[in-house]
Amino acid sequence: MRLVTLGTGTVAFTPERVCAGHLVHAGAVMLLMDCGSGITHRLAQHVPRWREISHVAITHFHTDHIGDLATLMFGWKYSSIPGRSAPLTLIGPAGISALFGRLTDAFGGWMRDTGFPITIVEIAPGASLDLGDGVSLSATKVPHTPESVAYSVTRGGRRVVYTGDTGYDPMFAEWARGADVLLCECSLPDDMGIPEHLTPSQCGAVAAAALPKQLVLTHFYPPVERTDVRATVATHFAGRITLGEDGAAFEIEED
Ligand SMILES: [Zn+2]
Ligand SMILES: [Zn+2]
C-alpha cells in the first residue's frame, strides 16, 4: 500500500497546505479520502493517474473536506477526450447520498450525466466494505460533527487508519490499535484545545494507546505550527512521528 498526504491543511489557507485529502493506492484500488479545496491541483501535482481513482470516501461534510468534489467530477468529465467512463464509488457517512443530490441540483445538467456510473454507499459506523482486490474499508464514529467517521483501509495484512476530523476519544485509539500508519489530525495547540479537534498532547495520547508503527500528523491550523508539535507528541508517544506535508508519500510493504 501507498499513502500520499495530499492536503495537510485546513480552512486557514496557507500556500503550503491545502484543505484535507489523502490518497491510498492498494492493489488495483485508488482511494481518495476527503476532497477539500486544493486537492484537485495536488492530484495533478503528485498523482499523474488521478483519472483512475476508483473510490472517494468522505469523512464528514465540512467544506474543507468536500469543497473540490464537484470540481473533481467536472475534471473527470471534461479534462480529456473522451472523458472518464470507468465507474466510481462514492462512500460516506449517512447523508452522503443527500449531499451529493444537493450538489447535483446545484451544478445541474453535466452532473446528472457525468458519463461514468457513480455508486453511492453510505457506510455505518462499525461496518466494513469490500472495495475489491483484497482491499477493505471500515468506519468508526468520531466526535466532531454528528456524521463524522474515521476510516481504516486494509490489504495484505497492512492497515492505514485516518482520523478525519475528531476530538479526543479513547475508544477511537482502541479501534486504531496496531495500525501501520495512523494519519491523525492535529489541529490546535495544547492551550487552544476544543472537544471537536485534537492537540499535539492528545495526538500523543491517542498514539500511545493505539501504538501505530508510524504516526503521521495532518490538518494543522497555523497556531499549532508555531509550537514544537513533534516534541509535544513525543512526550507521550515514543514511536515514529512524521509531520505530514502536502505530496509526501508513505510506502507500506504488504505481507
Ligand atoms: Zn471538520
Ligand atoms: Zn477539517
- Total number of strands: 14
The rounded Rg comes to 17 Å
Major sheet strand order: 6-5-4-3-2-1-14
Q: Tell me the span between the first and last alpha carbons.
A: 10 Å
Q: Helical residue percent?
A: 25-40%
**pLDDT average, as an integer?**
97
The amount of beta strand, in percent, is 25-35%
The sequence of SSEs as H and E is EEEHEHHEHHEEEEEHEHEHHEE
Largest sheet: 7 strands, mixed
Ligand inventory: zinc ion
Instruction: Please state the structural category.
Output: alpha/beta
Model regions low in confidence, pLDDT < 50 over at least 5 residues: none
Spatial shape: globular
The number of helical elements comes to 9
Word description of this protein:
- This protein is α/β, with parallel strands linked by helices and 255 residues long.
- It has helices at residues 39-46, 63-66, 69-78, 96-107, 109-112, 170-175, 200-210, 222-225, 229-234, and strands spanning 2-7, 21-26, 29-33, 55-57, 88-92, 118-122, 128-132, 135-141, 149-155, 158-162, 181-185, 214-218, 240-243, 248-251.
- The longest helix has 12 residues, at 96-107.
- The mean pLDDT is 97.
- The structure holds zinc ion (ZN) (2 copies).
- One zinc ion is lined by residues 60, 62, 144, 165.
